[in-house]
Fold this protein.
Amino acid sequence: MQPRPHSTLEDVAKAAGVSPATASRALNGTTQVRPHLRERVLKAAEELAYTPNAHARALAGAAHRTVGVICHDVSDPYFAAVAGGIMRVASDHDLLVTLASTFRDPEREVAYVSMLRAERAAAILLIGSGFENPDWERALGAELEPYLKGGGRVAVVSRHRSLRVDTVLPENRAGAGAMARALLDLGHRRFTVLAGPRTLTTVADRVGGFRDELRRAGVALRPADIVESAFTRDGGYAAMTEVLTRGLDATCVFAVTDVMAIGAVAALRDRGLSVPADVSVAGFDDIPIVRDLTPPLTTVALPLQQLGERAIELALTENPGRRRRIHRMAGEVVIRASTAKAL
Amino acid sequence: MQPRPHSTLEDVAKAAGVSPATASRALNGTTQVRPHLRERVLKAAEELAYTPNAHARALAGAAHRTVGVICHDVSDPYFAAVAGGIMRVASDHDLLVTLASTFRDPEREVAYVSMLRAERAAAILLIGSGFENPDWERALGAELEPYLKGGGRVAVVSRHRSLRVDTVLPENRAGAGAMARALLDLGHRRFTVLAGPRTLTTVADRVGGFRDELRRAGVALRPADIVESAFTRDGGYAAMTEVLTRGLDATCVFAVTDVMAIGAVAALRDRGLSVPADVSVAGFDDIPIVRDLTPPLTTVALPLQQLGERAIELALTENPGRRRRIHRMAGEVVIRASTAKAL
DNA sequence: CTGAAAGCGCTTACAG
DNA sequence: CTGAAAGCGCTTACAG
């Protein structure tokens, strides 16, 4: 496995004719080193193609420049946008980012936290909806607790009720409520909601916010009007198809996620229905692509990149009081051409 | 920084009343340990919320379970798809993935390789087009060389002429040629090509393949027919706008990337032109979203997820001969509704 | 099967 | 400013 091991600090020191301590100081610039020694060390390092062993360094007490990010799926556009923000900030701070996809498996999430803990990541970021699941909450807490006690920093994007950690909170409930109002204003009274799994807090919040606002206007959402499916494009397609098969009686479809809305529009089109002439469609998130769809999608715009930026900034920033900081981010309804006035 | 340090192997050993060596063996299952001792160790570890320090482990000689991935931009859908494949395989092998975005800055790429080398990543994957730039090639080689000598594994996706490492090679040239033929078959004779920066090998290959096939049919592509722009959606928009401003005389636009094609379609639409009635548009890559566009995009389909899977598999797989292995992946022309017969 | 000991490659008080 | 030494937390020959 190690045909020819990497050169070490000792090699460099020897080549430069100094002690390892001096070589270390010259390389790190921690202390003054006389210029001519410094030169020799740098030259030797260069010639030997020396790279410090990050593990030895971390073990010896230097801060470890890595932050761990756990998401559901790297290839989801929602996460891609959030990750963009994280990477930008990380790069400014010279941090390496370790990324893990859980594919929405709670156990895998816990396992990754454990691995990140083992890596002594400077911070761990949990991106995306938590689960409403006591077992998972307990297991996750059991990993996070000792990590925090050991000086680790944690921040999450989206609601994790049981986690007392810094949080960036998209206002899902309010955003969905605002969307309901906007759609009511367009004259719609009969809705179909395409939802993801109920165990996700994000789904619960968005569906709840939407339903409550409708109720306030005297419009009821019956259980049958809410279709649960996977939190993906194909999930949206499947849910919409199911609705179509048993007969659509709504004038407007609200998908709790843009990605699901995209699937829904595809399903509608495959059935020969036109958006918004036959039925209006709205989503949530404002992932970059929806602007370029035809028709462009009405949605609740979240500042996705900022979500990522704030999360890593929270984690990187000292939290003296050690109290939980919550950074709320409002969503804004953007009406585009996928929704029309109800007939 | 360390209010209460993590518990260590020694803590566990002490609590279990055994030596650290035995605790280590019980935890790792490397050697037989008498069941009752094993039990005690496991119980102690559980109670102390023990997690081994990955750095100490790596330093002491255990294989480090991390692979580094360097890409241009995590939030690019092309990369997101490739990354999906990488993550899947990584998760099967219980590997952690460290991801870095270079934002197409050659220097940053070299810096990241250096950091990954310092981390003693088990493998480094370079995803995306290389640059045609001797300085960069030299600098990158200087980092990769010692990494390889030290037992590191490297694989790349896309062409990196100067790198003698395992390669997954999309057949850009052939794919672009096939697209040219398909468009000629539709009757088109006047083309505009939306290209990314010429210094990217991928751009050179795709433009070259397209041009050569056209020439073979007696159709010339003049320099003015090729517009260079950023390798992004906005780059495609800008390039298309520029063409429109000085007057479009082509019946078909070929963007070297789907992402650029999406921008081009948006620009066309903003000018009131219809695709494909007024002008046909074709892309390259077949990122997932293009199927759901209206009209769906004609493109050269690449098995994006497989690109990522093959790359990490190549890197993880022993290479006895130490010769460069090249895994070619063909692209397939998929005609969708964004291209029509020329009038 | 188990333990004492050496060693992985650094950093950082501690002397000088 | 520089060096000898201890120590970070593991793993793994080496004895027993």
